[in-house]
Amino acid sequence: MYSKLNSILSSELEELKKKNLYRFLRTIESAQGPEVILNGKRVILMCSNNYLGLANHPRIIKAAKESMERYGYGAVASRLVSGNMSIHEEFEKVIAQFKRSQKALLFNCGYMANIGVISTICESAKDLVISDKLNHASIIDGLMLSKANFATYRHNDLEHLEKILKTKKARRRLIVVDGVFSMDGDIAPLKDIVELAEKYEAIVMVDDAHATGVIGEKGRGSVEYWDLYERLDIQMGTLGKALGGFGAFICGSETLIEYLINKCRPLIYTTALPVPVVAAALEALKILIEKPEMVATLRNNVKYFVEGLQKIGLEVKDNGSAIVPVIIGDEKRCLRMSERLFELGIYVAAIRPPTVPKGTARLRVTLMATHTKEHLEKAIFAFQKAASEIL
Hints:
The structure is a single chain. 43% of the residues lie in helices and 16% in strands. The model has no long low-confidence stretch (mean pLDDT 96). The chain is of the alpha/beta class. The protein has helices at residues 3-18, 58-71, 86-99, 110-121, 137-145, 158-167, 190-200, 222-225, 254-263, 265-268, 275-290, 293-311, 331-343, 373-390; strands at residues 35-38, 41-45, 103-107, 128-132, 149-153, 173-178, 203-207, 234-238, 248-252, 323-329, 346-347, 350-351, 361-366. It is globular and about 55 Å long. It has two domains: 23-51 and 292-390, Aspartate Aminotransferase, domain 1; 60-290, Type I PLP-dependent aspartate aminotransferase-like (Major domain) (Aspartate Aminotransferase, domain 2), CATH 3.40.640. The protein contains 14 helices and 13 strands. Strands 3-9-8-7-6-4-5 form a seven-stranded mixed β-sheet, with helices on both faces.
């Protein structure tokens, strides 16, 4: 029945294997903590986005259970039908206050939020979306799905961005940028970008997926880090990284949120997030608000780990986020490093093209606030041993 399809796909899969670009799923059999059981082996987890270690926090588990006793499990409709529940609105109120914006709106994931907002704000060929070259795939897909024209500027190159703003006119011009870039871990020069946008009358949207809970003294993300309160038009953030759950949100003006409710297709035509997911996110946010020192603990762990890798001769740097890329370059050696680290009790996935540019295959290390010094020391030793054997 599937012989023709299987023949076509099998051939392409073989090509991926030859190029060291083949992917497969590993199975975690435990809670997502600093240590996990992976394919039956206990390892230190060094590639999760669980930056604050909240994914299995007892308060969050309790909140999710209690919410189901009150509301049940699923919202079972879009928010414009019968899926809008008080728990959704409560989260939106708290996240808007946390981000110091007028209002917020929940989405089912960061991917849907990005493609939805970009294609809703820039919905015509009269519009222009301007994107950093290293933006997340969801932003790139948002450009493709919108009916707008788009331009890409060289990574963090403000002169190139200004040249585009000077020369390309449009009805609406939307600059979209990652607050923290997901593969390199560097922080966008957002204050300068906002100043350029104000100068040339453009709109700015920041994807704070890897910034919320990570940068800024209290973990408010880019808006706090750069002191851009009331100057950022659109903030997107996710609940599946530092907040340990699933989902996303948009923060901005009351008018923006009203507009999205009326016109954003991924919101209008999608069942609302399940109750325990939202309750868990709300509790995670409350924990962060109560215990902002978690952000400093994470920062200290990153600093300690980076300095440890530098001492053993690896070329890494602290970019100010929780992401530490160890650039290997060659895809085959990157896979071998990942496999050897796993044998030594450390799990770091090998990131290869097309996720990153060809020739920049890497081990994308991510730190957690709940990693202990013992975890970090063991990881540094494993990197030293694996690198001496492979690099």
